[in-house]
Amino acid sequence: MSTQDETARDELIDLAAEFYDQFASGDIPEMTLPTRTKSNIEYDPESGVWKYGDRTSTRSANSVRGARKLLKAVYTIEFLADQLEADRSSTLRELYYLSESWDNEEAQFGDQDESNQLIEDLEIVSGVTREDFHMRPEESGATLMGPIEIREQTRRGEREIHCQEDVGEGGYQIPNNPDMIDFLDDDVEFILCVETGGMRDRLVENGFDEEYDCLVVHLKGQPARATRRITKRLHDELDLPVAVFTDGDPWSYRIYGSVAYGSIKSAHLSEYLATPEADFVGIQPRDIVEYDLPSDPLSDSDINALESELDDPRFQTDYWEEQIELQLDIGRKSEQQALASRGLDFVTDTYLPDRLDEMGVL
User: Domain 3-136 belongs to what architecture?
Assistant: First the structure.
């Protein structure tokens, strides 16, 4: 077992020992966690990301419901500790099914959302990430493509990969734990995080990564933690600018927000995952007007989401307030691929160079 695995296992055992000590002293066992709501997110000027505030909630065994939650936590801690000792890993989905084999039915999970949330709870109270618990999500399929050489630690040993020369058109697939990667050499000028697979393929086909020495990161929709982590590492360790290229709708703005400032769900890991210096280069409401892009009317859920974002601390800047209010005024949304209405090369020859130049990235 590696030193990192030993540390993670010790933190889990210490957490279980706290429950035992509470029992031994005659106290009702409990676990205190930050309240994971938008109203409990606060901006941390030192790190430049959004974190949980001071509001907390308590999981206590003084009720049947609370006792069940703590029982499930203890069973999960035992499973994770055994997994680390055996140097094995499992997926979040597998944990949900594995609980059905536990000898106490009260400890079994009712659905995967419940087991996922418990893993997040254990991350918060232990200070250890789920990656260090050897817990994996289902494959995200997110990739890198660009002029960088890396060294990856695998079960078969180390391998060195150039993310243009040694990969196919699909790029290098980002592993579950990007902290197992070393950056060896690069000619990267900036990172472009792209929401959709279609646009990612367009950029690679047009040679955008080669012409501009750009590292194209496919977010694959709402980005997985591994994608956000490697983006942050690339920015911090190689001092690379980051731009996020998404569709022009409220859900895509939240994709940018999760890359730049963190998400409500994982605010306890914002300093580990978020890149507050990231710029938004996605489809803006003003682009819809200026380029007369093909667009669709906003749905009621779109309108509600935009109005909600006006109250979201991650979007309370002059830029975002202006763009969101404009979008509500024109009542339209548009996709990245709508730029193809001006030609297949428009996005790589005109739109992105102009936007990135305007932002000082090029």
Answer: Orthogonal Bundle (1.10)
The whole-angstrom separation of Cα 286 and Cα 326 is: 7
What's the CA gap between 361 and 213, in Å, rounded?
Answer: 12
User: Can you give the C-alpha Rg of the chain in angstroms?
Assistant: 22
Q: How far apart are CA 174 and CA 194, in angstroms?
A: 14
Any idea which residue has 């024109």 for tokens? 330
Tens of pLDDT, residue by residue over 117-156, are: 999 999 988 888 988 998 887 766 789 999 999 999 877 7
Domain 143-358 CATH (choose: 3.20.20.100, 3.40.50.410, 3.10.20.90, 3.40.1360.10): 3.40.1360.10
Dihedral sign of CA atoms 313, 314, 317, 319 in order: negative
User: Taken in order 269, 316, 214, 185, is the CA torsion positive or negative?
Assistant: negative
The helix (H) or strand (E) run that includes residue 49 is strand 49-52
In 127-213, which residue ranges form alpha helices assigned H by DSSP? Answer: 197-205, 208-211
Q: Is the dihedral of CA 221, 40, 260, 268 positive or negative?
A: negative
Q: Answer left, alpha or beta for residue 58, where phi above 0 means left and psi between -120 and 50 means alpha.
A: beta
Q: List C-alpha distances in Å: 10 to 84, 133, 219.
A: 10, 11, 34
Summarised one tens digit per residue, pLDDT across range 199-219 is 999 999 999 999 999 999 999
Give yes or no for a contact between 284 and 358, defined as CB atoms under 8 angstroms apart: no
Rounded-to-integer distance, Cα 122 and Cα 134, Å: 13
**Which residue's entry shows tokens 């001006």?**
342
Structure tokens at 251: 């859900």
Give the pTM. 0.84
Is 97 part of the annotated catalytic residue set? yes
Determine the angle formed by the axes of helices 250-260 and 318-330, rounding to 10 degrees. 170
Tell whether the torsion through CA atoms of 76, 79, 82 and 87 is positive or negative.
Answer: negative
Domains in the chain: boundaries: 3-136, 143-358
Element containing residue 182 per DSSP (H, E): strand 181-186
Question: What mean pLDDT is predicted for residues 214-233?
Answer: 94
Catalytic residue among 20, 75, 97, 253: 97
User: How confident is the model over 232-241, as a mean pLDDT?
Assistant: 97
